[in-house]
Amino acid sequence: MGSNGHDTPVVHMENIVKRFGTVVALDGVDFTVGRQEIMALLGDNGAGKSTLIKILMGVHTPDSGQIYFEGKPVQIRSPREARALGIEACYQDLALVNQMSIMRNFFLGRELVRHFGPIRWLDIREMKALTHSALRDIGIDIRSASEKVEKLSGGERQSIAIGRALHFGAKLLILDEPTSALSVAETRKVLTYVLNAKERGLSVIFITHNVHHVYQVADRYTILRHGKRVGTYNRGELTEDDIADLITGVRER
Q1: What is the reported pTM?
Q2: Per-domain boundaries in the chain
Q3: Mean pLDDT (whole number) for 34-59
Q4: Which of 169, 122, 115, 120 is nearest to 145 (CA)?
């Protein structure tokens, strides 16, 4: 892998193997995401998508293979190390705290604190202002940063995760089935937020089994089946039906 330049992928996973006992979850998978690219990671349940992403997030360690981040070989041993590199993941449960406000969720674990001698307190005003501006940057106008997360729609919840990743300087955002429980209108909103995040410099891995949801926005598609990579295809190279057939194994390519 090259060491520098705009052509260097944000992440390159090479020949990744992972076994759980006698089950081979990943069998020599290569996976690359370029700069400012939306990469769809597609496959049925059990294809290996979650295992691959958990290796990238430091939840699992690969049995063999190498990960390169911005051209440099790395070992990612924990989600904290992944985050330090600039990798943020947004899982289906979103890791948002329902009883807390949008602002508190936005700054969860990264709260802004003011000091006066030994006294410390949260800088609520600044956190509210930053939450509003960060979300506005990707096209979201929230009613109030003090509103509880439990009152938000699924699309609005996703927007907080995307805005948070941008605000805190993430380089790669992993979205795990972000549209799985959303209406058509909410799905359209989330796809718009993803495109806005790309425009602002973020690379995105969009994990889904719904080809239709991601077909319009992904730059490329990597398809996994039974722990192996079927292939990676550019936008426009395949129809939605072609991709669906490759996911299910109806056809080979």
Answers
A1: 0.86
A2: 11-93+154-248
A3: 94
A4: 122
